[in-house]
Structure formats: structure tokens, C-alpha cells
Amino acid sequence: MANIYIATCLAWRQGNALLQALAQHLQAELLPWQEIIPERIGGGALLPLAAWDYSEQPQAYLDWLAALEAAQVRLINPRAVQTWNIRKSYLADLYAQGLPVTPSIVLSAQHRTDWQKQIAAAGWENPVIKPLIGQSGKGVQRLTQMTNLNSAYPQGALLQAFIHAPFGEVCLIYLQGEYFHAVHRRPAPQEWRANSAYGVEILPISVLPHWRKAADRLMQALPFQPAYARIDGLIQEDNAFICNEIELIEPALYLPPERIGEAAKLLLQ
């Protein structure tokens, strides 16, 4: 069997318990991506499931992916998939196609002087702003007149309409293009961000058919079939599902312990 690696980050060198269990099934080594030298693992396989700090050095991460590809490392997901997903502009593109995505526009770093005009033209009341390249909920906030746009979003930003969704998010996980399972991310009291950095609670859930249908549409709209994907959808007050993120680089897959072996086999197909 070729060498298999799960790329982690410097702050979490061994990932978390679920990733350690997955690594055991894959017979994989957990190692920070900054310490993985592509030329030394040529012919092996790599999953970046715990590269939780790539947004701090996005160009270095992209260069590293290019070096891995050049060294004929099997990237799961491939470089093209990760490059497409690293900038949240994909959400604006999918929204423009009429897919069930939170209304989104890109605030480009190259056209910073146009931001206020774009924000006004969108007409959204206290919208959400997030870094164009970001992770773990960092920099995700409601936009107010007090927000310092110039210093907070040097790489650009994504502006989204605020969706009132007190139920939180449902995350649907797909492996090799097929639905695998789902979880409910319930926000902490008085919090609207369903993210681990803000005290979210992870709960089991039975997926409603129309949620699954919406997520399936989004999977079919992707320009590739990823080995793994997580479709995060806000559940609105009328129970409608609207996609807030698609995670194709380092998502928590929330794998049930009893299905980790099954997931490991699918990931390597």
C-alpha cells in the first residue's frame, strides 16, 4: 500500500479523535501540511482534512498543492477542487446560477473603492461579511457602520444577506458523490453563527427530503465530483434549506464511529 497522509496544522498536529480513528483505518500518518515535503511522498496519497490554518498562508498552501501535484502525489480532493473552493466567490457564482444559495456578492480586494457602492446596491439590512479566504468562522460578522473593512479583509470579502435561521445549520456529507450522513449544528443561545468557534452543538438529525434534494442539486452543479464534500445549509423559518457553504478542503465530516471504516474505503476509491 502507498503511503497515506492526513495533513494537519501546526496548532493541531494530531488532528482530533475522529481524524485519529480515520487515520488508523487508512493506515495514514498525521502531519502538519507545512512539514510535508512533496518530493518525499511522491506516489503516495494525501487528504488535507485538518489543514485548519491554510487561510493564514493561502498562497503558500496553493503553491504546496502545486508541488504535490508535480510530485505525483494523489490529492484527495484534487488540487483543482481545492483551488476552486479556497475562495468563497464560488458561492456568488452558484447563487448567480439560480441555485439554493444565500444571496452573495464578492467584494474584490482589487476594487476596494467600490465596496460601499456594492454594499449599498445589494440593499441588505445588516448583511453578513466574511473573509474571501477564511476558516473556522474567523472574521464572520454582521456588517455595521462600525466595521473597519480596510483592515479586516485584506484579501477581499464575501457579502451575504443575513438569513434568520434560529434552528441553525444542517450539514450533509457526501463521499464519492453519494450522500453518506448528516448532522445538525445548533447555535449557542443568542448566537447566529453555527460554528465550533461560537459554541455550536452537534446533534444527529433525520434529513427531510427537500433538504436532501437541495443538497443533491448543489452537488450536481459542481464542475467536478469530489471525493468528499460537506454541504452546509441554513434552515429557514419556513423549513427551507439554503446553502451557506460548501466545504471541499478540510471539513469536519462528523463521521459516526461505527462507519469510519466504511468512510475510509470510500475516500480511497
From TrEMBL:
InterPro entries, per database record: DcsG_Biosynth_Enzyme
Transferase keyword on record: yes
Question: Highest taxon of the source?
Answer: Bacteria
Question: What is a single molecular function from GO for this protein?
Answer: transferase activity
Does Transferase count among this protein's keywords? yes
Q: Which UniProt keywords apply?
A: Transferase
Q: What is this protein called?
A: Glutathione synthase/Ribosomal protein S6 modification enzyme (Glutaminyl transferase)
Q: Which organism is it from?
A: Suttonella indologenes
